[in-house]
Structures are given as structure tokens and as C-alpha cells.
Amino acid sequence: MSFTAKDTQVYREDEKVGHRNLGVKEREKLVENYLPVPPSKPSRSRSRKKKHQTSHFGIRKFLRSQLYLLLYIITHAIFSVYIRIRIAYHAVSLRILSILKYHHNTPDYVRRDVSTLKRLPKHLSVILTLEDGGRAGDALEKLVNEVSEVAAWCASAGIPRLSIYERTGILKRYMPQTHRALVHKLKAWFGKRQAPPLSLSTRGASAIHSANWEFSLQSQLPLEVVLISEDDGREAMVDLTKVLVQMVQKEKISAGDITIDVLDNELSEAVMLEPDLLISFEPYVDLQGYPPWPIRLTEVYCAPDNEGVGYQVFLRGLRKYTEATFKLGK
Q1: pLDDT, tens digit (0-9, with 9 covering 90-100), for 154-198
Q2: Strands (DSSP E) along the chain, which ranges?
Q3: Residue 15 per-residue DSSP state
Q4: What is the CA radius of gyration of the chain?
Q5: 3-class state of residue 168 by DSSP
């Protein structure tokens, strides 16, 4: 609010004479009308109410956080109980099946177990893991023993081709030792003269055949074992690409001749054919870098909450393959 003309004139005349016309109280009275109204002091009852509201909202926030914590604990407890019950159920069912369907290292028992199946895979692939990354002293020996067991199951069930995937490729460095272990296991199962012919091969190395490979009986179904690793995925495709590029540069083939079918055939010949069934002995599906191109139409099986290589998982995988329906697009 601005000063009136009368008050302004009075104030200026007083200023000219050195503020001798008006006293202190008169000057304060002159200015008092133009000062803003001072804020009123809050009453005690209002301040108490505000404090009460602040305290009330703090308690409500605390109770809400405790409710959320209680709901989280209850949900976590229910889920934990469910997981433990599921693990116990699968462990008991696998143990019962291993007792009822134990093979006793006899091919006849395996043939009896698979005799009710309508079909069997012609090519089975399994994923095995080197225990503790190979740091344990007996990790390699255990891995070779698992390979021998699976090979014996396949030979007994009449599956002619088996591919073993191990990510690090350590089996490739011990092919002669692995071949001897396989031959020894088959002889222990079938007998020295009835053991099926065996062939062990891998990419970039000569195949190792058993002594009876060329003189096998017609009743003996040969078993072909192929060792693959993570290197057979990306590196195999890189090597094939280099070869095709060199052939195109030398004008042996044209770029138009390189098709998906050509790539598929070359990769199949270099590494392996596409498996019909892939079994993982892990508690969940973990391909561990398995080459993706040969498993486009492969049936993949793993037993939930399973630990270790077991005959019951192998048998369940075969049953899963029998029940599977394959629908190919046009």
C-alpha cells in the first residue's frame, strides 16, 4: 500500500527540518498504517494437533512396512516348503525307480525295460559334466566311467549311435584311454566274445575301432560313439566358412551354390548327425554351449532335481521320446 499525498508531504517537511517537527511516536504512528499485518502465533491446541497428526502418520508407515515384511516372509516360507517337497518327491520317485528298474549290469534287463517302448532313438546324445571343473583328482576317471555306463546302456537297448558332449573337451585328449575303458565296460556287460563292435571318433582326429569292428557278427549291432565339445560349435562353423570362402575365391564353386542344405550337410559330416534325443543329467536344462545347429528337431529331456548320471533318468528319457510328437512344417 503506497503513502497518501498528505502523509508524504508531512514526512518530507519533517525531513527538511531534520526531523524536528515530528517525534518518534508520531513518526511510528505515521508509518504504522502502511506496515503489513504480523502473523498470528499458533495456538497450543493447534500445534499439539499437528504433532499428533505427524506421529499418527509415522506409526501408519511403520505398520505398513511391517505388513509387507510379514507377507514377504510368508510367501518365502510357502515357496521354500514347496521346493523341499518337490525335491523330496523327485528323489524318492527316482530312488524307487532305480530299485525296481535296476539293470544289474546285464543287457537282458535293459532290453526288457525298453521292450515296451514303441520306438527308440537311432542317435542319442547326452551332456556330461566334468566334476568340480577337473580340480578333483578322480574327476576324469569318474567322467570316463559315466561315458562307459551310458555306452553300455545304449548298446544293450539297441541304440546304434551315441554322442557324448563335455564342454571342456578333455575326453578328446584321452581318446585311447577312453576307448579302452569303453571296450572293457562292454566286455564286462556282454562277455569277451559277445561284446558289440565299437567305434570312437571326434572332429579332426582318426576314429579308433575295436578289434572286432571288421569281423563282427550280423547279430551284433555296432556302436558308434562320437565325442563333441564346445569347440565343435562356433569353431566348426568358422572353419567351414574359411574353406567355402577359399573355394569361392579359387572359383571352384560359386557363391550361389552355398545354401543352408550345403552348410547342414558339411557340418553333419564334419562333426555329427542330428541326434533324435538329447538327455541332460542336470536338475534343469543346461546346454552348456552345446552346438545349436544339430538340435533343431531334437527332443530334449532332463529330470527335475536330479543329481548325477543314472539309469532311471536314461530310461525316462527314452519313454519321453516315445511319447513325443514331431510335427514338421511344410
Answers
A1: 999 999 999 999 998 899 999 999 999 999 999 999 988 888 999
A2: 123-128, 161-166, 198-202, 205-209, 223-228, 277-280, 299-302
A3: H
A4: 42
A5: coil
